[in-house]
Structures are given as C-alpha cells and as structure tokens.
Amino acid sequence: MSGTQVVLTAMAVLTGTGLWLLVRQWRSGEWLTWVVPLVVTLSLSALVAAGWVLPMLYAAGFGLTPADIDLSPMWKAIAAVKVILLLSPLLVLPAWWGVARHRHHFYAVPGNAISSWARLPMAILTVGGTAILVLATAGDAITRTTEAAEQGTDPPPFFGVQPDWTCVEPVVPAAGIPGEGPPLDPARPYPSFGVAGGNAVLWDAEAEEPVKVPASKVRLVPAEGADQVCRAG
Fold first, then answer.
1. Which residues of 164-182 are buried (b: 16+ CB within 10 A; e: fewer)?
2. Is 233 in contact with 186 (CB distance < 8 Å)?
3. φ, ψ for residue 213, nearest 5 deg
C-alpha cells in the first residue's frame, strides 16, 4: 500500500470506530441532532448531484450549461456517487464527537457550554473543506481540458463527457449559419462536446469561448487531431 492508501485506510477505520462509539451512546434526542441532519444532507446531495453538481460546475467552466453537455442517466448517477464520496469528510465530525464522548472529555459532556459552541465552527470547517474538494474536482477537469485544447492533445473525459477533435463542415454557406460565440472556422477542428438542444457544442481554444451552431446546418466529422486541415464543406 502507498502512503496515501495507508493514511486513508487509517482515517476510514478511525471514522468508523468513532461513529460506532457515538451510536452506542446516543439517546433518543441525539438521533434528531445527528442522524436526521446527516441523512437529509446525504439524500439531498445525492438527488442534486445526480443531475447538477459536477456537470454544472464543469459546464460553467466553459461558459455552458448542463443542458449543453447532455449526460446519460447512468453518468449522472456516477457523478452523484462521486459527490457523495467527496462529502464523506462530513462523517469525521460526528466520529470525533463519538470518541470524545467515549473518553468523557469535558467539552463533549451533554449540556456543556463548550460542547454546544464547538459544534458550529467544526461543522463550518468540515462543510467548507468538502466544498473545496468538490470545486477542485471540477476545476481540475476544466483545466486539463482547456490545456489539452490549447496544446492540441486529446482532451480527457469527464463523467461521460468526451470532447473530441471534430471537423465542422457546413452543409449551407458558412456565412449564413447562425450561432453563438466566435465565428465558425470550417478549416480547423474544434473540441466538440457533442450535440445538445439541436446545437453542435464546440470549444474555440484560440478565443477561449464556446461556439454553438445549429446541428442541422453542419456535418460533424471526427478529426485525427488538432493539426488536421478540415474541408470547408
């Protein structure tokens, strides 16, 4: 096992032990304090993440919306699992509390003023740290994709989104193609996010902006790479 795996395994064991100790000591009122908020948080996170969290952050990094990178239900579910795993640090707080209660630390005694005040800053730090992990996951994917587009290498996939180098051949005069973003240049390939909402969704690495053109007015042809010269139509 690598050093990182050892640390993660130790954290998982300690967290599991702390949660077990906490459950052993729970009184009925404390189920409402810990279990209900935790279950609600994870449930809502799963529902929201399934369709929005990571896809929304990833799309926003390219000036797009989740509708522009249409994901299948399977990949939305996988994205949800990823977000829930990133939320796992939230379990550290109740686990730490369980160990403190078991060892009868004075600040963990029910009703103690310090006990009440300690929960809020710990919760804020934990939730804030988790939010940073979620943002960093999407941010890293955005950075790797934009760098690949600039360098002409193959962009990496992200939960079912695979930007591929694509030649965009107009089937009508290029000057008559409406769209959003910089003017379409049919002579060079673009990283394509596919077709969504009737539009071919592209990324212009030179302008660092998205390009959307009606899919009915162009033909998308896979390109061998960024250096390929595309036909004008």
1. bbbbbebeeebeebebebe
2. yes
3. -130, 150
Q: Would you state the pLDDT for residue 103? A: 61
H or E element, residue 17: helix 3-25
Residues 6+ apart with CB under 8 A from 145: 62, 155, 156, 158, 163, 191, 203
- What are the backbone dihedrals phi and psi of residue 71, each rounded to the nearest 5 degrees, phi first? -105, 150
The DSSP annotation for 35-78 comes to: IHHHHHHHHHHHHHHHHTHHHHHHHHTTT--GGGGPPPHHHHHH
- Dihedral Cα 148, 149, 150, 154, nearest 10 deg: 40
Residue predicted with more confidence, 138 or 111: 138
Q: What is the pLDDT of residues 185-212, one digit of tens each?
A: 899 999 999 998 889 999 998 889 999 9
CA 149, distance to chain mean position in Å, is: 20
Q: Count Cα atoms within 13 angstroms, Cβ side, for 113.
A: 0
Taken as a whole, the chain contains a residue count of 233
Helix (H, G, I), strand (E, B) or coil at 171: coil
From CA 213, how far away is CA 231, in angstroms rounded? 17
Cβ neighbours of 216 (radius 10 Å): 12
List the structure tokens of 73: 């239900």
Contact 193, 163 (CB under 8 A): yes
Pairing of strands 199-204, 190-196: antiparallel
Phi and psi of 124, rounded to 5°?
-65, -45
* Residue 143 burial (C-beta neighbours within 10 Å; 0-12, 13-18, 19+): exposed
3-state secondary structure at position 185: coil
